[in-house]
Amino acid sequence: MTSSSAQTIVPGDRPAGNIRGTRSAPQARHGMIATSQSLASAAGLKALQDGGNAIDAAITAAAVLAVTEPSMNGIGGDFFALVYDAKTKKVYGLDSSGRSSHRATPEEFARRGLKEVPGSGPLSVDVPGVVEGWSQMLSRFGTSPLSKVLQPAIGYARDGFGVHEIVAGDWEDATRKLSRDPAAAKTFLPGGRAPRPGEIFRNENLAKSLELIAKEGRDAFYKGAIAQAIAADMKSRDGLIDLEDLAAHKADWVDPISTNYRGYDVLEMPPSTQGFVALEMLNLMEGFDVKAMGHNSADYLHLVSETKKIAFADRGAYLADRESMPKGILQMLISKDYAAKRRTEIDLRKAAAGYGAGVLGGGTSSLDFAGRDLGDTIYLTVADSQGNVVSLIQSLFASFGAGIVAGDTGITLHNRGSGFVLTPGHPNRIAPGKRPLHTLVPAMILKDAKPWVSFGVMGGDNQGQAHAQVVMNLVDFGMNVRDAGDAARVRHMGASLAVESGISAEVRKDLESRCHRITDGRGAMGGWQAVMIDPKTGLMMGGSDLRKDGLAIGW
Length: 555
Hints:
Strand order of the largest sheet: 1-22-21-17-16-9-8
CATH architecture: 4-Layer Sandwich
CATH topology: Glutamine Phosphoribosylpyrophosphate, subunit 1, domain 1
CATH superfamily: Gamma-glutamyltranspeptidase, small (S) subunit
Structural class: alpha+beta
């Protein structure tokens, strides 16, 4: 063998269960947490062990992730959560996504000569919702103050952390974007480059910002010194967000939306985010004998792709701020009757080029807005011994958001405003104080009104279609909480169907014969985190996707 020859490293086989499995699902009786970073999981676990509940642990871990996965999320981003409260035995939804500026009008963008909202830069920035979401959750359901739960994150920001392999890759990919903004380059490209795996990274300015929030509460971000710094930065860039916009931000407690899939209640967030996509897909799939088809068979994956196309046609036509969607449309889209009608449009042997959006009263429309296929996101979930469960997601949208760091705050601002359109008459058209189309969807499955699985799959447009697949992995194919997330998935993207390596060549060939254009799915499937609770024993089991550097751990 010459020195230039490549050596292929092939993993060994597990002696029990799934021979390709990476590890057994961890099990615990007192508490369980799953996140995409081991440091965050450890911090959340310690919060539980120190007497905190699932809400305390979730915000502790979310804050650590805002430091250790800076390309994916941060306190300059948005936040959604589902909380099962053991006292009231009810699931609550928290929408802390930000709104557009009071100056954000179609006319303002036209005055600037723009035909669409930019994908990055100051005009893509809406009000960040993360800090408000943390504060609201802790105030209503937590037992620890914000000043306590932020301490681990402050420590990692000031003292540094080792950069994980996958995070380093995402960071490197964003080098050009970061280099365009002097503040972003100074913060995230030390020595003129992205940190490499195993190198120590510090963000001392972010540590100072987090310390200020710990001391003064959420008002430090929305009314105090941080708000002033963000507003000044936006003004210097001729952006739209100002102090008035920041001070006006408030999270909304909302009722989750749901459908029953083969005896299990699947809960998702309502608009302005895309939770109904997963519910609509499941309703469509329920009319087929999924189990008999076989997991990841050509018949099954063909149906996954076609139901996604139908649901996304509806998403493209209607998803927007809740107050802007046509009255009654959401109830129609997640109804069983609607699914039964749309199911008849699917050709079992041929992929459709596209489907129309459903119309109230029957029929379809050609209205569509595909949206940007973005999504750099973190997801985490926690369950505690009292019965509380949290499903939480936060994001900057694109990698490093708008590519802007606000002054000397160390805070990256998101680009969620790029989710708006300027199309006249579309429900998602930009307007003052409005939420844009969102992709962030935490989820939960209940059995007999009790939490069974709390889960999420990060990754932009992938989230809804991945949710449907993992629910079927659990319900139809009886997978455990680890295998349900690790199993090979597909992702329909535009005109192509991205397929992972675990799907056979024979199946790929069959899909191509049905007019699917097959592409490599590596890196396109996001990342699953989940907690499953045994309804009889209360035993908690965790799942953390092999596609991420995460950890499910309990005690």
